[in-house]
Amino acid sequence: MNKVMDLDEVIEKVQDGATIMFGGFLGVGAPLKAIDKLVEKGVKDLTIISIVNAYPGQDFDIARLYKNKQVKKLITAHSSTCQLALEQFKNGDIEIEYFPMGSLVEKIRAAGSGLGGVLTPTGVGTLVEEGKQKLLIEGKMYLIELPLKADFAFIKGYKGDRLGNIQYRGLAINTNPIMAMGADYTVAEVNEIVDVGGIEPECVGTPSVFVQAVVQGYSFDEHKQVYTDLWVNSKQLK
């Protein structure tokens, strides 16, 4: 099955009110072209799931969705990197639901693995445990964290083949492999699309069974230039 698709065709599937996972960590390993297309379409009332909220600023990563007022709810472990999101939360325009970072990752993994939930001691005795079931196991208390699933996951890979196998490079391996598992429809935006066999089996970070569409993102050279320009303009690089 050839899973290579045009990005515009994929974005047409996303409707108002969708729940979307976005791979990446502060913009690193983020599906930038897909985010831009979602902004262009203007789909609204989104629930977005991001391990750490957008890269600081208003015109990069998922911050663009806040700027365009497309977000209804954010599920995250850390939100203060995006001032726009915090302002909208204070104004009552969006809802934010927090989970400890490890718990959030495990909730997504549980959804992709078909598990009924995960047990964790993190959050016991704090506000995190409110409304959750607890189990006492061998004298230690655990919270039951339920699986977290999305309608769509937009992830970022280095290479993708026509069957949907994905190879990662560098720090893009952060949240992308987990989020690829946790959605009904996973879209892998990649730097390079290759023929089947163009990715060594031991380099496959996400197998094709989890991916419904492979789309062309920036080429690797373009990708490097985007981040170089970003970090130079923000004075993190000279």
From TrEMBL:
Residues of the signal peptide: none
* Taxonomy of the source species: Bacteria, Bacillati, Bacillota, Clostridia, Eubacteriales
Name of the protein: CoA transferase subunit A
Pfam families referenced in this protein's UniProt entry, alphabetically: CoA_trans
Q: Name one GO molecular function term.
A: CoA-transferase activity
* Keyword field: Transferase
Family matches, as InterPro entries: 3-oxoacid_CoA-transf_A (IPR012792), CoA_trans_fam_I (IPR004165), CoA_transf_BS (IPR004163), NagB/RpiA_transferase-like (IPR037171)
Q: Which organism is it from?
A: Clostridium estertheticum
Q: Which family is annotated?
A: Belongs to the 3-oxoacid CoA-transferase subunit A family.
